[in-house]
């Protein structure tokens, strides 16, 4: 596999943090720190921050994403946001299937597939999250689980559309816990995912797909994680809320 064939992407996932005013301040602070990045820089922000984030990032190399979207275009789905709405605003990326959505908001592999398909149809790039719980790792079913999540999520997605999918391997036990997967664990599962993508499509799609690691990636451990051949970037939660820390991770991915 050839790392040079794919784009390194460092994406922030702000989760339910930052008001629009705070979003403007944070992006204003980040812009000069990441301007020389040799990787893609994406910030996925709460829906209400999107407008402010787009304005604050204008003319810079920071692209804006959302943290979820619904699978219908419009209709009686109180509280939901459709991919058409995101697209019209100028959003480029959307996270789908984050473990917090699966854990707290009853997302299933099937709804993840529906949301992913709907987002791709609107031309959004999808950051699809997969990853095992601690019990599942201890039971030795990480590989089966991650392969199943990947296959169901990509069900019915054409080879052409798969080029707009980024996969983030996020072991649930490492998210927000300060407990990072070792770089070998991250590499092992990112490689399993890449092989799975090759089985679904072909080697070209697999080699071209950006596969990120996420879960307590920070300014200190990013270098080591990103040095692995199948780890093409990161999905960053906590550390994306601090301009300096986030920029250090972006620099690590730019080497
Ligand atoms: P974390 O979150 O970096 O705070 O562990 C990562 C994520 O949930 O995407």
Instruction: Output the number of helix runs.
Output: 12
Which strand order spans the largest sheet, edge to edge or round the barrel?
1-2-3-4-5-6-7-8
**SSE order in H/E notation?**
EHEHEHEHHEHHHEHHEHEH
Backbone shape = globular
Percent range of helical residues: 40-55%
Uncertain segments of ≥5 residues (pLDDT<50)?
none
Assign the structural class, choosing from mainly alpha, mainly beta, alpha/beta, alpha+beta, or little secondary structure: alpha/beta
User: What small molecules are bound in this structure?
Assistant: 2-phosphoglycolic acid
What's the gyration radius in Å?
17 Å
What average pLDDT do the residues reach?
A: 97
Structure summary, number of beta strands: 8
Biggest sheet overview: 8 strands, parallel, barrel
End-to-end CA span: 18 Å
Strand content: 5-15%
How is this fold's topology laid out?
Elements: E1 9-13, H1 20-34, E2 40-44, H2 50-57, E3 62-66, H3 83-89, E4 93-96, H4 99-104, H5 109-121, E5 125-130, H6 134-138, H7 142-153, H8 159-162, E6 165-169, H9 183-200, H10 203-208, E7 211-214, H11 222-226, E8 233-236, H12 243-253
Parallel strand pairs: 1-2, 1-8, 2-3, 3-4, 4-5, 5-6, 6-7, 7-8
Helix pairs in contact: 1-2, 1-12, 7-9
Bound molecules: 2-phosphoglycolic acid (PGA).
Can you give me a brief rundown of this structure?
This protein has 255 residues and is of the alpha/beta class.
If you had to describe this structure to a student in words, what would you say it looks like?
With 255 residues, the protein is α/β, with parallel strands linked by helices. Helix content is 43%, strand content 15%. It has an 8-stranded parallel barrel, surrounded by 5 helices. Strand 7, helix 11 and strand 8 form a beta-alpha-beta unit. Helix 7 crosses helix 9. The protein starts with 8 loop residues before the first strand and ends with a helix. The mean pLDDT is 97. 2-phosphoglycolic acid (PGA) binds next to strand 8.
